[in-house]
Amino acid sequence: MSQKYDMTIGGRRVQSGSHQQVHNPADGSVVGLSPVGTEDDLEAAVVAAREAFEGWRDTGDDAHASACTAIAKVLTDHAAELSLLLSKEQGKPLKGLGSEFELGGCAAWAGFAATQSLPMRVLEDSARSRIEMHRVPIGVVGSITPWNWPLLIAIWHIVPALRAGNTVVIKPSPFTPLSTLRMIELIAKVLPPGVINVVAGGDSLGAQLTRHPGIGKIVFTGSIPTGKKVMAGAASTLKPLTLELGGNDPGIVLPDANVEQLAEGMFWGAMINSGQTCAALKRLYVHDSVFDRTCSALADIARRVPMGNGLVETNLLGPLQNQRQFEKVIDLVEDARRHGGAAIVGGAPLPGPGYFYPTTLLTGIEDGVRLVDEEQFGPALPIIRYRDLDDAIERANRGEFGLAASVWGTDPAQLRAVASRLEAGTVYINKHADIAPHVPFGGVKSSGIGREFGDEGLEACTSIKVINAAV
Ligand code: NAD
What we know:
The chain has 15 helices and 20 strands. By secondary structure, it is α/β, with parallel strands linked by helices. The radius of gyration is 23 Å and the shape is globular. Helix 3 (about 80-90) runs antiparallel to helix 6. Strands 14-15-16-13-12-17-18 form a 7-stranded mixed beta sheet, with helices on both faces. It has a 6-stranded mixed beta sheet with strand order 9-8-7-10-11-19, sandwiched between helices.
């Protein structure tokens, strides 16, 4: 009998009338049954979060900080259980940059939030006026999460919102709801009832959340097309939004790069979570003079990094998470082949079971081919030869994306000069996909609106309230 997971609404575990099977993408086995929440469930969650709001807000700053410490402890205490469940439903390996790493990140982000503060600023203290600027919570924050890093992204949404005194309703991806349901059940035990609520279900629940007048703000992480729908949905009630959307991160390898030394960073920058990472390296522009050496250094690593069922502890890469994503990667690589692309390693799906697509490096294609222009979100990296740096920078900046970018080389002045010309929310030098709780993260252009993490991320969970007193 498969285990049924529960929603958490108003501090209670809530079942729904119907359930959906969640499958392990490595072998198709049933991991568990997710409730399929209804509009009524979502309504109940918003009501519970609204009822809890004033009490939570008024418990004060120290209580909010202590709650983040308590959440970090819960996540650490249950890391083994949650990592195992995450590996089963998401597919990512337990080890390496997999689910244990993800749980470690969850605890780190929660612990960091406990150290943050939202100080009041005195803007004027004169004979005429005393003017103070306070940061106050918004109300109920609605969180909508994707399936690639489901727990870490949930924590990125939830923890700053709670730290700032808001309450939360979260809706996880229907592809990976179980680990979030269980994580919220655990977190809810260290918070007053209704402060955190989770409703699992289909995309329509996300749309309901964005439109709901009882929700004060939406934090959304997902694709650009869905982000646009979220923005449209939120317009009717003029909600503030944080949108963390897709990326097609370019990397530029300069002629003086020590590519053998840098290849490991490029490889994991691209292949982390089998490429299913928003800010992964998704197209690599390599100068002609180091092109062959770069390809061969990356191919050597690709051949030795084991891919397979995430529960086998030697595996460092897992499957694609779902059939839609699997078919997308197959389609993009086949299209690249039709346009002259050749795979140095990989290039065709592995025999079943599971959605396994091998680590793939493709050469022989240029901008204008879909694998270069679109977000592949899988382990298939196009390596593009360039001769003129200005042209490479122009191509790197082309298109609607602007999440992150990277430049790889030796001369610090040139690295900085190139970094200054790349259009992205984060530009890395000699690394990629490196994030930290104190460093603001987010995209420009269609890759997003607003920032998470750091002071800026916390402030984004607040409204400004000015108290302007005559003296
Ligand atoms: P998705 O946009 O398909 O779904 C994300 C979430 O939105 C899911 O919970 C889904 O149920 C919900 N949703 C779907 N339709 C909705 C609607 N009309 N209104 C409200 N909610 C709706 O994304 P995905 O396939 O789960 O995730 C992959 C995408 O997420 C990639 O593009 C990736 O780059 C992006 N991503 C971005 C970041 C970032 O920080 N920038 C991080 C991770 C993933």
